[in-house]
Amino acid sequence: MKEFGKTEYKKVIYINFELDKLMCDLFSIDFNTKRIIEGLELTHSKINTTNTLIILDEIQECPKALTSLKYFYENAPEYNIVAAGSLLGVALHENSSFPVGKVDFLDLYPLSFMEFLDAIGESNFIELLNNPKSPNIKVFKEKYIEWLKKYYYIGGMPEVVSTFLETNDFQKVRKVQENILEAYTRDFSKHISSTGKLKIDLLWESIPNQLTQENKKFVYKKNEIGSKSR
């Protein structure tokens, strides 16, 4: 989001609700968009509606900020606002209103194999891959297999791909992957009870095993049995 703001706007106002309680207080008083903008300008800088991007990060930590998006849409649509946060955290906040129909969603996915080729500087081979009738597909078959093997190991998480490009070190790649998995696990515990976390941990840990089964459907009962056996 910061990079997008840097390249597409003259100015970026970045708020992290996990780190900035004052800003959460600002959004929590009421949904008066004029008052909120005045508060942002007091603590940050003047907001120009044509060239300023407002970033609301970790928005699940401030439910009223999430609800305020509805009122910005209705009363102050000229402001450019982008928000991000844990969907799990948003879903588990009780008594908080979600701005249905007032926000546009953007789902970000890991890099596909084509995007991976582009990231490692092999974009010329994407065009060839899109032309399966070309005889050159067979000529470069081994190259494609080599890249696909690397893609299977590295995956498409941007930070992991970036680490591979910078270091060409698979041990460092694995370390970044482990850090991301650990971060997901820690994120679970921020939003649910210890009992709920145990169940989610069981589900999370069972995913690799279930992916190796012939039946590709996720079987929840297996995890219930595992939970009881523990």
Can you walk me through this structure?
The protein has two domains: 2-92, no CATH class; 113-229, no CATH class. Helix 10 runs antiparallel to helix 11 and helix 12 packs across helix 13 (220-229). Helix content is 59%, strand content 7%. Mean pLDDT is 86; it is low at 225-230. With 230 residues, the protein is mostly helical. It has a three-stranded parallel beta sheet, sandwiched between helices. The longest helix is centred in the C-terminal third of the chain and has 22 residues, at 170-191.
| End-to-end Cα distance | 42 Å
The overall pLDDT, averaged over residues, is 86
Strand order of the largest sheet: 1-2-3
Number of domains: 2
Can you count the beta strands?
Answer: 3
Shape: globular
What does the main sheet amount to? 3 strands, parallel
Helix-strand pattern, N to C? HEHHEHEHHHHHHHHH
Number of helices: 13
Compute the gyration radius: what is it? Answer: 23 Å
The computed structural class is mainly alpha
Percent of residues in helices:
55-70%
Q: What share of residues are in beta strands?
A: 5-15%
Q: How do the helices and strands line up, and which of them pair or pack?
A:
Layout: H1 2-8, E1 11-16, H2 21-28, H3 33-43, E2 52-57, H4 63-75, E3 80-83, H5 87-92, H6 113-119, H7 124-129, H8 136-139, H9 141-154, H10 158-167, H11 170-191, H12 194-211, H13 220-229
Parallel strand pairs: 1-2, 2-3
Helix pairs in contact: 10-11, 12-13
